[in-house]
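A quick aside before the break. I want you to see a complete sequence-to-structure record at least once, exactly as it would be stored in a machine-readable document. Don't worry about memorizing anything.
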Amino acid sequence: MTRFGHMIGKSLGTSRWIKVDQPRIDTFADVTEDRQFIHIDPDAAAQGPYGITVAHGFLTLSLLSTLAYDVVPALGPYESSINYGFDRLRFLAAVPSDARLRAHFTLNSVTEKAPNRVLLTLAVRMEIEGEETPALIADWLVLLHF
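That is the input. The structure line, written in tokens, reads:
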């Protein structure tokens, strides 16, 4: 059996809540130069499709890194973890300014890449507090080095 094979299909846990407020959205807009009105202009966004400013999809996605730190240590000691990419990613709901998010992580698969490297596929569901539809779902590939 591969390392972590006994954990396939099991939840790794749920992260803490993290707030996505307007200053965070504005900072992300500045860094990425994505200044679409629905993200940074509350007056114009009020007339738009969501009625409020919303987080960038890529901002929402980028928060997975910090949220994963809450649960991936359940896999035990390792030297490093590397973002290897995504096999599937869908943005399902807009994240309104001041919403809180958390992520649920499940280990979907484990592939031994070398004696000291393991590729994990994590099923991720990012929840918006108080909403039924998640902000995003993804199959995230993470390479652990031992």
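Two observations worth writing down. Helices lie at 22-32, 37-40, 42-46, 57-62, 64-68. The longest helix spans residues 22-32. We'll return to this after the break.
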